[in-house]
């Protein structure tokens, strides 16, 4: 079953066509990678999918619903969450508090209950804390729950972003360059997908992409260059040329793509 789909997505900035008619479909519980040279349109596509910018043309579908240009918070309620290449962490909060923020869409108490300190607030906070601790344990940060986020290493901060995104209980998780500074990321991503979450990955580490992806979509200059499984993409001459250049493509084997 298709969980996430893009249909003829096009967008231009100042006359530059960042994306031109890009389409794809991602099924539930797979790792779907979007790759391409710098400037290919990968981040722009992520921004369109996650509601940070509206396409000039085309549609985004989530679970069969047209969610084109919905705001990120509305997409989160529908089951789509993402991380960012540039970290979006609350540095003054603890690791646990950062992840608890990701549970906001599952909380049922309101302002009045908080002001009156009703028992339901304590019950809700306990549930939120338990879910956040579970998300931290899932990414290997369970022992760091009470540490201030500003004291974490860069790789741990990347894991923290993933934990906060997982706390929303997404059906689709967009990961933007998760491998940077992070160990054992492959095992983590495989585990997330095994739980039925569709993982959409933008990543420059081609070794990771080829090892982990069920399906790969290649962009170049805002267009779809190729798509298929890892073996298909590795052997595609156009993909080799886009990464290595025409000169190197003539002399290097497909397995040299990184």
Q: Any key phrases for this structure?
A:
258 residues; 6-stranded mixed beta sheet; 4-stranded antiparallel beta sheet; 10 helices; 37% helix; globular
Concise structural overview:
The chain has ten helices and ten strands. With 258 residues, it is α/β, with parallel strands linked by helices. The radius of gyration is 19 Å and the shape is globular.
Using the coordinates above, name the CATH class of the largest domain: Alpha Beta
Determine the fraction of residues in helical runs and give it as a percent range: 25-40%
The assigned CATH architecture of the largest domain is 3-Layer(aba) Sandwich
Spatial shape: globular
Provide the CATH superfamily of the largest domain.
P-loop containing nucleotide triphosphate hydrolases
Estimated structural class: alpha/beta
Describe this structure in words.
The two termini are 31 Å apart. With 258 residues, the chain is an alpha/beta fold. Strands 6-7-8-3-9-10 form a six-stranded mixed β-sheet, sandwiched between helices. A four-stranded antiparallel β-sheet has the order 2-1-4-5, covered by helices on one side. The chain has helices at residues 42-49, 72-77, 95-101, 111-116, 119-138, 154-166, 185-194, 206-212, 230-234, 237-249, and strands spanning 2-13, 16-27, 31-35, 57-62, 65-66, 80-82, 172-176, 198-202, 215-220, 223-228. It contains ten helices and ten strands. The protein has two domains: 2-79 and 170-256, 3-Layer(aba) Sandwich (Rossmann fold); 91-164, no CATH class. The model is unreliable at 244-258 (pLDDT under 50).
